[in-house]
Amino acid sequence: MNGNAKVRKKVLAASSKSTIERSWLARIAAYPHIIWSLLFIVVPLMFVAYFAFTDMNGGFTLENIKNLSNYGETFVLSLFFSLIATVICIIIGYPLAYFLARQSPKRQKILVLLLMLPMWISLLIRTYSLMALLDNGGIISTFLVSLGFEKLSFIGTGGAVILGMVYDYLPYMVLPIYTTISKIDNRYLEAASDLGCNSLQTIKNVVFPLSVPGIISGITMVFVPSISTFYISQKLGGGSFDLIGDTIERQFQNKMTYHTGAAISLVMMILIIISIAIMNKFSDGDGGDIIV
Amino acid sequence: MFKMNKTKNVISGAYIFIVMLLLYAPILVLVIFSFNESGNLGNFSGFSLKWYSELFKDATAFTALKNTLILAVESSALATVIGTFAALGIYRMQNKLVKSLVTTATNVPMMNPDIVTGVSMMLFFVAVAGIFNFPNALGQGTMLIAHTTFNLPYVILSVLPRFKQMDKSLTEAALDLGCTPSKAFFKVELPFIVPGIVSGAMLGFTLSLDDFVISHFVSSPDFQTLPLYIYNQTAHNVKFSMYALCSIIIAVILLLMLAINFIGARSDAKRTFGKNIKAEKRNLAKH
């Protein structure tokens, strides 16, 4: 291509680009979505803030926020349960993701599909299936009784709630970690072993640091739903544990307590946003293409 | 990745097997016990379809199924139309600030806990109904709005990459050959982004079928979907007809998933099918 043609092509491209970007279709295409998002995403969140700072008569008040101190224990318990569940998910999920990434490509495909299948089955159903397993008179307790143990029910214990969180959200931890590990350039690993690393040292010095963005993403994916769940604690906690989600859900069964519920939701949302922001600070990202 | 020796291979294989087994065991137990003759969770006394026949006699379950399907079709269709045009608009947007504001607002329901999304919409609907003096704030309409809202980001996320993959010179050629920009969109760009639209619509459909938490807050007792029905039925004790219902849902989802993967394997838009799209999105949204 000679210089002249190149210039002509550039000019043409520039002119057609500006025509298409100024076309009426491109200009109005996003408007229905923008209006929809404003109306049904942004405005409802403002309503949460509005309800949190008003009383029954619509007057401004800080009472709802002050009353949150009554729920300190609930916040701590939820935080405690979801942190434990998140840590267990990392401990179980990281080796799984690592081993998955080292299978043959064909096997990887099948195994990843197997890992994703439970994600498609509603969490409600999976929690319910766990409940059947752990219930008093369920298969595990029947088995233990036949071994001569005393009859016991796991439902209603903190362990059952944490188990439910781990069971429900484990795939959400494994997949992002798996994605980052499988993207690691093989040459890094070869270089590490050429330089005398054994496989454990390679994991510690190369694989792990490169998979941090996946871990961070996995933590968010497990921690956020765990701390805000209400049916896991209702079904598996047997009503003996009150987590933030349960508390919020209860406030919205009665119009009188909407304002308290809104205040708890607002605080939880802000805490989650802050913790996500802090965690993102620690991961420098893996340079995927950004959807903007 | 690099090769492993044999013992390590066995260890990793066994580990994967055990975790997968634990992941599937409760689901398997649920399906098996849905065929249990006695209403006993501890031992399997004999094969029977009686819980299934009890389920099929339950008219409420059928209404719930009908509601679920109608809602999933309506909300995914609405989200697909709005979302596809939104992807076009966002792709062509010149103003960087507006662009990032719009994407951030879109991503909010993905980052926010579902319970907060549900609660915020409920408060909004109740307040609006209060202003206009509607007696019943919640119902089919609010469910449709809520489901469309949480489907939207997934549709946009499926369609936008197709726009980015498209060769710009195709549109330029259409324009040079005399197409108006909107004609170029319908004739050239739209056919190219169809796989993204299809995967977005299917994703929305499945998410809508599945949703419980948001629906729990924006529904009314006279418009129940299957997840809400299951939740209400299992509130106090284990019901075996619910085992049957859950087993049927699991079977349908597995078939759907296999079908999607089969189609996906034949189209290059496969990546966007998985539910791990949420994981990927969270990953991307941070940067």
Sketch the major β-sheet of chain B.
none
The CATH homologous superfamily name of the largest domain in chain A equals MetI-like
Approximately how much beta-strand content do the residues of chain A carry? under 5%
Radius of gyration of chain B: 23 Å
- What count of helical segments of chain B does DSSP give? 12
Largest sheet of chain A: none
Q: CATH superfamily of chain B, please? A: MetI-like
Distance between the termini of chain A: 34 Å
Binned strand content of chain B: under 5%
Parts with pLDDT < 50 across at least 5 consecutive residues of chain B: 268-275
CATH class of the largest domain in chain A: Mainly Alpha
Number of strands of chain A: 0
Structural class of chain A: mainly alpha
Instruction: Determine the mean pLDDT of chain B.
Output: 83
Order of helices and strands of chain A: HHHHHHHHHHHHHH
> Number of DSSP helices of chain A?
14
Descriptive labels:
heterodimer; A: 292 residues; mainly alpha; MetI-like fold; 2 domains; flat; disordered C terminus; B: 287 residues; globular
